[in-house]
């Protein structure tokens, strides 16, 4: 696949001195689904805003299908569709009319059949002649998605698409994304849900504090994020981890009342059975076990630490 979107050294520093984005280099392939994964405030929305011309970059260049996003703004912007986080629509306009108006803004002529298809795909058909101000929050978000698609963009940005949406809309959205993918539309979504990235994306980028930490194929990244934790609740607290347990990645938590074991859930051997057999041999009794995924924050701490070690 060839590159449809390229960012080279793109950064954003505000007058206050706050660095929102740190020299991002990124290439998006035509027709792929790319997930930008990061916590709130990581720089995801800033990056999308810069590409879509809503935020001025402090440095770098952006090329959209061969068009410079600054020098050839009109052609570049016409290739993009954006579904923002915020609900911002013309409250007094009817649903169908706002979609037709949006097509006109991008120089597209009327296409009633395509607009009808969009309305049906997003369960808006029954609301096509309703004023937007009369719609529920979920329906307004559907209108935002339809507006972003009204001019048939080559690249669709979805900024936190499932934040605060109901189950039905989430299902309709993923169904529509699959349909758009079949048509060859390039889709870039931001999220702080690992599950969302795992469900839809071909590649995943991880961003934290304005820095793009890594970009990898989804399966390779999910393998890295396959870390799990098992807490072993002890009958009697320990003051230190016995040296006989050194082969396992253990830490003492909760004033010595809890042993935490970090392991790779996708590994052929997790080491759990041998650990649980070893504990009684050392006279360590436990009363319960708890397993859970590492939190996203834990993952980001690990990634940042790894990058610092590589730079040292």
UniProtKB/TrEMBL annotation:
GO terms for molecular function: ATP binding; ATP hydrolysis activity. Residues 5-234 form the ABC transporter domain. Pfam families: ABC_tran. Keywords: ATP-binding, Nucleotide-binding, Transport. Coiled coil: none annotated. Gene3D superfamilies: P-loop containing nucleotide triphosphate hydrolases. SUPFAM superfamilies: P-loop containing nucleoside triphosphate hydrolases. The keyword Nucleotide-binding applies. This is ABC-2 type transport system ATP-binding protein. It comes from Stakelama pacifica.
């Amino acid at each position: 696949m060839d590159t449809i979107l390229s960012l080279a050294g793109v950064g954003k520093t505000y007058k206050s001195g706050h660095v929102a984005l740190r020299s991002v280099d990124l290439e998006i392939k035509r027709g792929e689904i790319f997930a930008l994964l990061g916590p709130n405030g990581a720089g995801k929305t800033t990056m999308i805003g810069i590409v879509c011309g809503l935020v001025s970059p402090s440095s770098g260049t952006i090329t959209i299908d061969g068009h410079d996003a600054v020098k050839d703004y009109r052609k570049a912007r016409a290739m993009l569709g954006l579904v923002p986080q915020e609900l911002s629509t013309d409250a007094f306009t009817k649903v169908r009319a706002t979609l037709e108006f949006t097509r006109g803004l991008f120089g597209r002529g009327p296409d009633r059949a395509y607009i009808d298809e969009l309305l049906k795909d997003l369960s808006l058909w029954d609301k096509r002649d309703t004023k937007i101000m009369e719609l529920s929050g979920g329906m307004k978000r559907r209108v935002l998605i339809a507006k972003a698609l009204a001019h048939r963009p080559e690249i669709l940005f979805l900024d936190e698409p499932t934040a605060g949406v109901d189950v039905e809309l989430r299902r309709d959205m993923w169904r529509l994304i699959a349909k758009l993918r079949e048509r060859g539309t390039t889709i870039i979504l931001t999220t702080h849900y690992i599950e969302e990235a795992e469900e839809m994306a071909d590649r995943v980028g991880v961003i934290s504090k304005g820095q793009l930490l890594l970009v990898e194929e989804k399966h390779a990244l999910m393998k890295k994020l396959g870390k799990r934790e098992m807490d072993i609740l002890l009958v009697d607290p320990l003051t230190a981890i016995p040296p006989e347990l050194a082969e396992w990645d253990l830490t003492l938590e909760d004033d010595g009342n809890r042993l935490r074991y970090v392991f790779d859930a996708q590994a052929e051997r997790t080491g759990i059975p041998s650990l649980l057999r070893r504990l009684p041999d050392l006279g360590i009794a436990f009363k319960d076990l708890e397993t859970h995924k590492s939190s996203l924050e834990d993952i980001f701490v690990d990634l940042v630490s790894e990058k610092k070690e590589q730079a040292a």
